[in-house]
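tool_call predict_complex ligand=thiamine diphosphate
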Amino acid sequence: MSEAKKASDLFVECLEAEGVEYVFGVPGEENLDLLESLSDSKQIKLVLTRHEQGAGFMAATYGRHTGKTGVFLATLGPGATNMVTAVAYSQLGGMPTLAITGQKPIKHSKQGRFQILDVVAMMHPITKFAHQLASGDNIPSRIREAFRLAEEEKPGATHLELPEDIAAEDAFTQPLPRSVARRPSAEEKAVRQAVKAIEASKKPVLVIGAGANRKLTGRMLYQFIEKTGIPFVTTQMGKGVIDERHPLFLGCAALSAGDFCHRAIDDADLIINVGHDVIEKPPFFMEHDGTQVIHVSNNTAEVDPVYFPQIEVIGDIANAIWQIKQDIVPQQTWSRDRMLEYRAADIAHSDPLEQDTRFPIFPPHLVRQIRQAMPEDGIICLDNGVYKIWFARNYPTYLPNTVLLDNALASMGAGLPSAMMSAMLYPERKVMAVCGDGGFMMNSQELETAVRLGLNLSVLILRDDAYGMIRWKQANMGFKDWGLTYGNPDFVQYAESYGAIGHRVTSSVHLRDILSHTLETPGVHLIDCPVDYTENDQILNHDIKDLSAKL
Ligand SMILES: Cc1ncc(C[n+]2csc(CCOP(=O)(O)OP(=O)(O)O)c2C)c(N)n1
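tool_result ok
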C-alpha cells in the first residue's frame, strides 16, 4: 500500500504517467478538486475552451495526429451532454480520447437530483469504455484501462466519471506503468490465400481506407504499389496515405457512386480493401456473385448489407501488406488501362472547372487556389458541408493527415477546433480551417480560444448564407427551395471583435493573394469568401455521372 494522497492528485499523476500534455475543457464546480490538482502539474496544460464540443474536437484531433489519447474535461449534466457530439466524433472517427466528467458526491449528497443525469449510461453506446470511479484506489487501473482501450485498434472514445467525494478522498495506490503490446500478425495461411487470389485476378485494384492511415502502413502500401503496379483509390479518410501525385492514383471516393473512381473500381475483378471501416461512406457496394473482395485490416470486417468480403487477412495492417508484398509475383496478365482511362477523363473534366475564375468563387477553383497556396505539408481541416466533397475529390493530398475531414460522424462544427489543435501541435506548419458559414457558426466562439492561445491560423468561411449541402439535396430530390437560408454576421467585424484579423474576398483575382497573406502573417485570420454553389447539382450529380458512364 502506498502513502495516502488525495485521489484527484493521484488522478493527475496517472494522466502524467500516460504522457498527457493537455487537458481541454470547461470545468464545473464538480471538477474543482481535479482542477486544483491539475494546477500543480508541470507536465499538463489546461486549455480552457468556450464550449465542451470545442474541447472534445481538439482532444480528438490531438488523438488523430499523435495516436495518443486526447483528454477533455467537463462537469456533470449539461457539461456532459455538451460533450456527446465530440465523444461520438472520436468514437466513429477512430480517434483516441478520454472524456472526464464530474458528478455530485455519490455517498452523501444534499442536492437531490439537481443536474444529475446517468452520464455513464449516456456515454455507454458511444464509447469503448465508460465507468464511474467509486473509489480513489481504483483510479490507476481504470485510467490505464481507459488509455489502453482508447488507443488500441480501432482507436476511439472512453469516459471516466470522477464524483466530487471520490476526487476529495484519500487514496493509497499509485499509477500503473504503460504496457507495450504488439499487435498480432496476420496468419500465413490467410496471406497465402490473398496472394493466390490477387495473382489469379485479371484486374486488381487497391482501396485505401481510414484504418490504413498509420505511418508504417503508408510506407508498406507504397512499396506494395511500387512492386505490383496495382492502381489505388482512397476513401475520404484514407486521403494522404499515399501521395496523390502517384501515377497509379485513381481518385478519392467522395461521392456515393457514379464518379470516375467508382467506375474504375467497377472495372476491377478483385478489390484489395485495406483498413476499411464500414463507418465510412462505402467506396463501393458489394453484391452477391459480384467482385471478389479481400479485407486487410486489424479487425475482421463488420458485416453489412453492402460489405461481406470473401477473404480476410487480419492482423497488423502494415505487417500484412508487407507479407503480401513479399510473397506476391506480379502478373503480366494484370490490366489497369481501363482504370487509368477513367482517371484521365476525371482530370480532363476537372481541369477547366478549376480554372473558372467567376465570382462568387466557384468551388473547384477555390480548391485549386488553396492547394497552390498551401505548402506540401500544410494542413487543411474541413468542417462539414458540400465543399467537403469538392475537397475530397479535387484537392491533391501529398502527406498523411494533411487533409483532416470527418467521413464518419460527419458532424458540423469541428473544422475550427481541429485546425486549432493542428496549429498547436505543428506551429512550424501552415494550417487552414475550411468551413461553411453554417458549420463555422456552430463553434465560432472558439475564435477567442485561438486568439488567447496565440495561434497562427487561417479560417476560410465559404459563405452562401444557407445550409448549402441540404439545399443541394433538397434540389436533387425535387423539393422546392425552402427553409434553408439565413443571415450572417459581418465576418470581418466579427473577427475583429475577437481580436482576430478579418479579410473579405471581393474577386477571384484577389483570392490567392489573400490566402498567401493570411498563411504568411502571424495571428488568427478569418476570411469571408462568397461561394457560387449554383452548379453543384449539375456537376456532381449529372455531369460526372453521365460522362463517366459514357466512357
Ligand atoms: C451537427 C450537424 N447538424 C446538422 C448536420 C446536417 N448537415 C450536413 S451539411 C449541412 C449544411 C452545412 O452548411 P454549411 O456549413 O453552411 O456548409 P455548406 O454546405 O453551405 O457549404 C447540414 C445542416 C450535420 N452534419 N451536423
